[in-house]
Design a protein that fits this description.
The protein is built from 13 helices and 26 strands. It is an alpha/beta fold. The two termini are about 15 Å apart. The protein binds shikimate-3-phosphate. Shikimate-3-phosphate (S3P) binds next to helix 5.
Length: about 425
């Protein structure tokens, strides 16, 4: 993909459904009673991987564009006749493992080369404590072979802040005798808890702990999935690059555990207002009006890093254009995402002529730098492809992104929509 610099950025958009919520609603729809009707389902390949796995597990569904109807089977899925292909999706393999741990059969989950490198011990260990048997490759990597069992509840402190793991264990908790309690070191996105409640389960939340009682039946829902706030980050950051920009995004997910991005961008210098606030199945949704400003400096560390984990690539990619630079710390988890995102960001920024300091757990990117168009790489990572399309908008000269097609993982329409918002 060739990206030419732009002069301005303006327009209105509505985004495809949030990826985190789409995965969860699809999985819970599959084990609920009745037909779950979802509008604005994520158009990303990751959520298609979840639907494909559910099909292999005997779940019937129909898809018409972004409308999906899932015919729930109740708590029991069908033994698969082939391996479940999770593609590139960490959410699919980790969260589905929680459901498969409670089934009366053995299933095998695998994925692409990137997924095969990602750590799964974080779900294997607690799911084994609950009674499932799980075999994995050396070092706890996929493929996973899960033999389900009647599970027992656990009281578990997550060693890493991960919403995927928390959700996986809550899903397993539905199949456990007793009450499963999960405590997280830092609060992560709460879509798993909210989705379970939407499907009729009782979930107790106390500060950083969540509990669920096993054996609760789920009922189908009808929902319109709010626009993906992590995908919106690319447009918000693009708006930030042009002082006269104007952007309106309606129907956007504004869940407080995801919206730290907005606080961050306001702190950095964007002008953001929020309206039309509504609650849909416990999720906050609204419209954003955004105008550019002068970008200052920022530091992301501790709980902010966990809250901004998917947005850090694009925040880092625009850092050279800020006046004071951006520092990111406590972000070791970025090294085990779809690519080593610390290394991917540093490599591309350097190829574009920027000075970058790389730490084991983050990056320091000085401000006031000029980026130059270059040949860069997505490293097969959707968020890296989109982050650098944004950085390229203010570079001197054209930028060629190899492997830009990786954007299909979360936002296949990204480059087309980006182009429609640019002024040249
Ligand atoms: C997600 C949680 C995060 C995030 C991922 C989606 C989720 O991963 O990076 O894109 O939907 O729960 P971790 O759970 O590994 O932190």
């Amino acid at each position: 993909m060739l990206i030419r610099p732009a002069r301005g950025f303006a327009g209105s958009v509505r985004l495809p459904g949030d990826k985190s919520i789409s995965h969860r609603y699809a999985m819970l729809g599959a084990i609920a009673e009745g037909a779950t009707r979802l509008e604005n389902f994520s158009t990303g390949a990751d959520c298609a991987s979840t639907l494909a796995c559910l099909h292999t597990l005997g779940v019937k569904w129909e898809r018409n564009g972004s409308s999906v109807v899932i015919h729930g089977r109740g708590s029991k899925l069908e033994a698969p006749r082939s391996r479940l292909d999770c593609g590139n999706s960490g959410s699919t393999i980790r969260m589905l493992s929680g459901i498969l741990a409670g089934q009366e059969f053995t299933s095998e989950l695998a994925g692409d080369e990137s997924l095969s490198r990602r750590p799964m011990a974080r779900v294997i260990k607690p799911l084994e404590m609950m009674g499932a048997r799980i075999e994995a490759n050396d070092g706890g990597r996929p493929p996973l072979r899960i033999t389900g069992a009647r599970l027992k509840a656990i009281d578990y402190k997550l060693p890493v802040a991960s919403a995927q793991v928390k959700t996986s264990l809550l899903f397993a908790g539905l199949y456990a005798d007793g009450e499963t309690r999960i405590e997280e070191p830092i609060q992560t996105r709460d879509h798993g808890e909210l989705a379970l409640q939407a499907f009729g389960a009782e979930v107790q939340r106390q500060m950083r702990a969540v509990s669920i009682r096993g054996g609760q039946p789920l009922h189908a829902i009808e929902a319109t999935i709010p626009g993906d706030i992590s995908s919106s980050a690319f447009f918000l950051c693009a708006a930030g690059l042009f002082p006269d920009s104007q952007l309106s995004i309606s129907g956007l997910l504004l869940n407080p555990t995801r919206a730290r991005l907005l606080d961050f961008l306001i702190g950095l210098g964007l002008r953001v207002t929020m309206g039309d606030l509504q609650e849909q199945h416990g999720e906050l949704v609204g419209t954003l009006q955004v105008r550019g400003g002068v970008l200052k400096d920022a530091r992301v560390a501790g709980g902010d890093t966990a809250a901004l984990i998917d947005e850090i690539p694009v925040l880092a990619a625009i850092a050279p254009y800020t006046s004071g630079g951006i520092e990111i710390r406590d972000a070791r988890e970025l090294r085990v995402k779809e690519s080593d995102r610390i290394a991917s960001v540093a490599a591309n920024l350097r190829l574009m002529g920027a000075e970058v300091k790389e730490f084991e757990d983050g990056l320091h990117i000085p401000g006031g730098q000029t980026l130059y168009g270059a040949e860069i790489n997505s490293f097969g990572d959707h968020r890296i492809a989109m982050a650098f399309a944004v950085a390229a908008l203010r570079a001197e000269g054209e930028t060629l992104i190899h492997g830009a097609n990786a954007a299909v993982i979360s936002y296949p329409e990204f480059f087309k929509v980006l182009e429609s918002l640019l002024q040249r």
